[in-house]
Write a structure and sequence with these properties.
The chain is mainly α. Helices cover about 75% and strands about 0% of the residues. It is built from 20 helices and no strands. Helix 5 (about 85-110) runs antiparallel to helix 12, helix 7 packs antiparallel against helix 14 and helix 14 crosses helix 15. The longest helix has about 50 residues, at about 315-365. The chain is globular.
Length: about 525
Amino acid sequence: MENFQSLLGQPHLTSIIIFFIFIAITLYITYWAAKKTKTTSEFYAADRSISGFKNGLALAGDYMSAASFLGIAGMVALKGYDGLIYSIGFLVGWPLVMFLVAEPLRNLGKFTFVDVVAFRLKQRPVRIAASIGSLTTIVFYLIAQMVGAGALVQILFGLPYEFAVIIVGFIMIAYVLFGGMLATTWVQIIKAILLIAGATFLVVLTLAKFGFNPIELFKQATVKYGDAVLSPGGFITNPWDAISLGLALILGTAGLPHILMRFFTVPDAKQARKSVFVATGLIGYFYILTFIIGFGAMVLVGQDVVSYFDKGGNMAALLLSEAVGGEIFYGFISAVAFATILAVVAGLTLSGASTLSHDLYVNVIKKGKTDSAGEVKVARIATVVLGLTAILVGLIFKGQNVAFTVGLAFSIAASANFPSLILSIMWKPFNTKGAVASIVTGASMAFILIFLSPTVWVDILKNEAAIFPLKNPALFSMPAAFLIGIIVSLFTKEPEALQKFEDEKLRTYLGVGAE
C-alpha cells in the first residue's frame, strides 16, 4: 500500500487533452445538428430519422452511466460476487423492454412515455400525475449524476468541485439547447463506442496478466481474500433486500423516461425492436466486462488501495487502468468516465424538458393549442431551467451520500411509471382514476419507504434503527401501485376508455395510425 503511487487527484495532461478533444467534436456535432433542429419532431425525436442500429448504440450510451462503469466495478472489487446482482439486474430489464414495451411505445407515443399512458384516458389528470412521476425520477437521477460528476472531476483533474459541476452543467445545456435529440444521440453514440472500447482494452490488459484465463483471475482472488469473494452475502445479507433491489433494477429500466424517449427517434416499430436488440447485446457485453474489471482491481490493485482512494470503491476501474496500462491509458479512461457523465446528464435533461414543455405546457396548460415553433421555444426555455436546476442541486448536495437518490430514481421508475405504463397498454378496464391512483401510490410509497429505510434513516439521519427494514422499497411499492390501480379501475367506470382500448389495439400491434 505504502509503495503504490497513483496519479489520482492530480491534473493530468493526457486526460485533459482527450477530454477537450471529446468536447470539441461533440460541440461541432451540436453546431451541425442545430441547423437541422427547428420543429418539435426534430427537437424531441431527431425527426424519427435514427436507424435501429444507431439508436441501439445511443440507448446503450444513455444507460451505461458512470455509476455502472465505476460503481459496479468498485462494488465487485470490494465485495466480490454480490456486485453481480447489480450487473445482472441492470441487464435483465432489457429483454422485458424489448418484448413488452418497445413496439407499443413506438406505435402509441409521440414524444414522451406520458403520451402512451394518457393515450386512451382523460389527458389533463393523467398527464399531470405521469409528469410528476417522470420529473421526480429525472431530478433524483440528475442529483446523483451531478454530485458524482463534481466528485469525480475533483479526484481526476484536481479541479474544485463547484467548477466541475458548473462546467458539466453548461456543456450539457449547449448540447440539448442547440442540438436537441440529434446532437444528444450522437454524443451518446460516441460515448458508447469510447466506453466499450476502453473497457474492452482494460479487460484484455487485465486478463493478459493471468494468461488470458478468467478462472486463474478468480482463483487468485480466492487465494488473496478467501472463498467468500465468490459467494453471495458480502454486500446484501438480507435475501428480501436482494429481491427488492432486483425488482427495482429490472422493472425500473422499463420506467426510465430518458430511456423510453429514445424509442420515438426511430422510423417504425421494427427499428425500435432492433435498437433494443442491439442495446441489449452491448449492455450485456459491457456488464460482463465490469465483473472482470472489478476482480482485476481486487487482485492487481488490492482492496486496501481501492478503499483508500474511495470508501465506496468508485476509483477501482481507474486504478486498475493505471496499474495495467500506465499513465496514458489511465488518462484515456479518466476522460471517458467524465464524458460518460456528460452524455447521461444531457439525455436526462432532454427528457425532463420534453415533459415540461410537451406534456405540461402544451397538453395541460394550453390544452394542445399551440404551434410547433412555440413548443420548441418553450422546450428550449425548459432546457435552460432544468440545466440550471441540475447545477444548483449539484452544488446543494455537495458531499452528500447520493446512493439513496439512485435507488429512489429506480424505485419511482419501477413503482410509479412502470405499472401505469403496462396497465395502460395491456389491461382494458384501466381508466383515468386508476392511473392517477396507481402513479400517486407508487411514487409516494417509494419516496416514504426509502426515507424510512436504513439508507436515509440510519446512514444519513443517524438514527439507531430503521423504521422500514429494507434498503429498497420496490418489493412493496410496485405491487401496491399495481393493486391500487386495478382496484380503483374496477370500482369506477369510464366507457370512453373502454371503447378507445379497441382502437388502441390496432395501433399497438399493427402500427395503424402511428406517427
